[in-house]
Amino acid sequence: MEEFKGYAGYEPFVLSDKKTHLKPFSYKPRILEDDEVEILVSACGICGSDVHQLTNGWKRATYPLMPGHEFVGKVTAVGNLVKDLSIGNRVGVSPVCRSCGECSECKASYGQLCPNKVTTYNGVFKGAQSYGGYGNKVRIQSKWAIKIPDNIEDTECAPLLCAGITTYLPFKHQNINKDTSVGIVGIGGLGHLAIQWARAKECKRVLVVSSSKSKAEEAKTLGATDFATLEDIKTTPYLQSVDVLLVCGSGKSTDWKDLLGLIKNHGKLLLLDIPDEPIPFPAGAFVYRHISIEGSFVGSHEDIREMLDFASKKNVRPWVQKIGNSLEEVNQGLQDLMNGKAHYRIVISGEGRQ
Asked: Beta strand pairing status for 242-247 and 320-323?
């Protein structure tokens, strides 16, 4: 029986301790289900979520853990009931790889919230753990394998399947458009795509907030109409100036009172990243100004198709750094991401794993 090969963490990843870094891993895949396809991975993004999982920052990692939930590849096998895909099709996969199709969430096109969903890695299906795109091949439910527009390259597409859909979905669900003033906190793997969606949606104001002025010009290139540092936002021109604030990056030093001050009365704070530590929100900022808070988790397979079509037409693309597919290069890519050197998404390129 064929073995799938890749790179996995066997214990919590510690940046300064090389013995905890990724190591070769192989496993015998479960039998291909009738509704599944097998995919030979050609490009896989290294996502911030991979770091949270590998380090066990979210306290839910199961080892050995082989990450990779934003990847592209070609279909190499199809189950007996698969009608819409065939061998050779180029497809992309997001953080969810299976849903039941029968529950209220699935029927409402929220398959990513299905209570019986299977995540692309660190999940379980029929007693077998799921392993992601740091491996050479993956088997998933066919409806979650999304055909990719011809004008989006593999390495460009991979980050769209997590960071892209994560930042696109709020624009859809909140009906963010040309009449909306948008604030975006953080110009990283998520934020640089959120800025582009705001540009593509022709939002009347796109205020980008960063810790320093070093990314001001890049923010304007991406589509920002205004730029401010975390110190600037304490001043009058920025107070209560946006309808919706997308938080794409936060940490222990984040001053949530200052960020909430950017939002107009009746506005909304949208959380797109998940820090390891609990968030200390000042309750009064919500109560006295009728501000609401909402989260958003990736998207359904229907949303991903729509997002890729929109990205294709509006030229929304991640800024990527390609790396090779050797163990050494993938470990180095993870270290670069953890050290803040990603600009803005790191993508493993090439078929096969050594």
From this structure: unpaired
What SS3 class is residue 151? coil
Q: Where are the domains of the chain?
A: 4-147+319-349, 164-295
pLDDT digits (tens, 9 = 90+) for 100-109: 999 999 999 9
Interatomic CA distance for residues 204 and 200, integer angstroms: 11
Output phi, psi for 223, to 5 deg.
Answer: 135, 5
Element (H, E) at 103: none
Compute the distance between CA of residue 23 and CA of residue 331 in angstroms, rounded to an integer.
9
Q: Which SS3 state, helix, strand or coil, does residue 295 take? A: strand
Reading the block at residue 181, the tokens are: 């003033």
Q: Confirm if 251 and 273 have CB atoms less than 8 A apart.
A: no
Is the Cβ–Cβ distance between 194 and 344 less than 8 Å?
no
| Residues forming a β-bridge with 135 | 6
CATH architecture for segment(s) 164-295:
3-Layer(aba) Sandwich (3.40)
At 290, is the pLDDT very low, low, confident or very high (cuts 50, 70, 90)?
Answer: very high
Q: What is the pLDDT of residues 121-141, one digit of tens each?
A: 999 999 999 999 999 999 999
Assign domain 4-147+319-349 to its CATH superfamily: Medium-chain alcohol dehydrogenases, catalytic domain (3.90.180.10)
**pLDDT score at 354:** 80
Half-sphere exposure of 267 (CA within 13 A, CB side): 23
